[in-house]
């Protein structure tokens, strides 16, 4: 058996997220189906982390064990010929037997896109979050600096979070503006359920002037989900990169 | 009755084009339905030109006559509250009684987006055309210069073209690259059916090295559709701007 790591890009709009669920279309299920067809045996795929319904990926990583004479460099194109067109394998490589895409991930980067304009852009509904109120980029950038470091992010995870340990390290949090599009880019050692979406939702409160940049620090310390902002929609979120 | 000009943006993915067709979802039909609900009477909407199924718009212009006390500056938001979310009215203004959005258009600008990379980008399927072979931007720009000017574009229109006069003026044709995305921007006094898509399809042949830039001149002179390249897919095309 060879252990393979795949890098995968997908449009999450029409899927119920990464993880297999009985009878529902998910990314993991589509990949396992395509692998079974290509390799001729059942394949179990492990992802670097789950993505929720409607969340996209540019660099999701996943591993699988296969018994096949197909050379690894031919796998992306062969899988893409079978997969639905909103899932694209960008890379495949051989990895050691001990590789685990979730436990060995050192850094993960997510991006979140907001369209900040008078009217929405119809082509971007599934890929951005539309905010009408003008946002103060400088204030949001100041607020974002409070996230950087090692903190207990209990205030920034959904009530569905099942992880006991809510301490995570954020390495960087950048906010860029290009015309009407604002991109939030956050890199850390791991993220709790809905953590990126709640962090962005809170920064948007800062951007609107409804919170001050330094309030972020108090919210982190409070460990109280109710103090933070809304969970912004899944559509704006992309799992951008996983580093090992 | 007031005569109003609307500027409209839409995602054409889920529509059978601009023009009303019995029982099929079209942009014109959705706009007329929304106007009827807002203004309380039947409204007939004239566009600056048709767009085919799957083609998008950022600045389609259209006119309508209404009998309403609603101030014109409130109309975009009121219509957007009724319209499906993939159609957005960006502007409404009062125009003179003699205004005609098609006959009085002086310049139209279309953009066409190509994604030129090893693998497609799943989020961009409905908004770009994916080309695997690396394209030579300089050669395509040289080829595009031959389109500028007043020519008989018979070789660059579909067999469904119903217009007798196939002479059009192209004012500019620019090609820009931003990472993997190549944007073709063409401005002219009007376009024949499929003209932009066939011009881009022919330039892509030049970009691949299958035609020379100067071949474009010969194809124009031939007036023969069979000499030109393919009609590239509707998904990459956006009606960008109409000037009066």
Structural description of this entry:
Two copies of one chain form a homodimer. Chain A folds into two domains: 2-94, Pseudouridine synthase I, catalytic domain, N-terminal subdomain (Alpha-Beta Plaits, 2-Layer Sandwich); 107-243, Pseudouridine synthase I, catalytic domain, C-terminal subdomain (Alpha-Beta Plaits, 2-Layer Sandwich), CATH 3.30.70. In chain A, 21% of the residues lie in helices and 30% in strands. The first copy, chain A, has helices at residues 27-39, 75-82, 137-145, 195-208, 215-222, and strands spanning 2-10, 46-47, 56-66, 87-94, 107-116, 129-131, 149-152, 167-178, 181-188, 237-243. In chain A, strands 1, 2, 3, 4, 5, 6, 7, 8, 9 and 10 form a ten-stranded mixed sheet that branches. In chain A, a hairpin with a 2-residue loop joins β8 (167-178) and β9 (181-188). The radius of gyration of chain A is 19 Å and the shape is globular. The first copy, chain A, starts with a strand and ends with a strand. The mean pLDDT of chain A is 96. Chain A binds chain B through residues 9-11, 56, 76, 80, 85-90, 119-123, 125-127, and chain B through 9-11, 56, 76, 80, 85-90, 119-123, 125-127.
Key phrases:
Alpha-Beta Plaits, globular, 5 helices, alpha+beta, about 20% helix, homodimer, 2 domains, about 240 residues, 10 strands, ten-stranded mixed sheet
Radius of gyration of chain A: 19 Å
The secondary-structure class of chain A comes to alpha+beta
- What is the molecular shape of chain A? globular
How much helix is in the residues of chain A?
10-25%
Beta-strand percentage of chain A? Answer: 25-35%
Multimerization status: homodimer
Give the C-level CATH assignment of the largest domain in chain A: Alpha Beta
Mean pLDDT of chain A comes to 96
- The parts of chain A where pLDDT drops under 50 for at least 5 residues are none
Q: What characterizes the major β-sheet of chain A?
A: 10 strands, mixed
Largest interface: A-B, 20 and 20 residues
């Amino acid at each position: 058996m060879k252990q393979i790591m795949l890098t995968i890009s997908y449009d999450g709009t029409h899927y119920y997220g990464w993880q297999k669920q009985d009878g529902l279309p998910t990314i993991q299920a589509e990949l396992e189906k395509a692998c079974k067809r290509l390799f001729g045996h059942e394949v179990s795929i492990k992802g670097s982390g789950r993505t929720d319904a409607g969340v996209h990926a540019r660099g999701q990583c996943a591993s699988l064990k296969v018994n096949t004479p197909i050379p690894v460099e031919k796998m992306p194109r062969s899988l893409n010929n079978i997969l639905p067109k909103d899932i694209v394998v960008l890379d495949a490589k051989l990895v050691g037997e001990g590789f685990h895409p979730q436990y060995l991930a050192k850094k993960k980067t997510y991006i979140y896109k907001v369209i900040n304009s008078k009217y929405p852009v119809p082509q971007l509904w599934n890929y951005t979050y539309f905010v009408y109120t003008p946002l103060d980029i400088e204030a949001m950038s100041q607020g974002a600096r409070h996230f950087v470091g090692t903190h207990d992010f209990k205030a920034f995870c959904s009530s569905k979070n099942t992880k006991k340990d809510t301490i995570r390290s954020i390495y960087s949090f950048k906010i860029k503006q290009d015309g009407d599009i604002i991109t939030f880019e956050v890199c850390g050692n791991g993220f709790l359920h809905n953590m990126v979406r709640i962090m962005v939702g809170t920064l948007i409160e800062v951007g609107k002037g409804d919170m001050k940049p330094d309030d972020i620090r108090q919210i982190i310390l409070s460990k109280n989900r109710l103090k933070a902002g809304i969970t912004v929609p899944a559509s704006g979120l992309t799992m951008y990169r996983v580093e090992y």
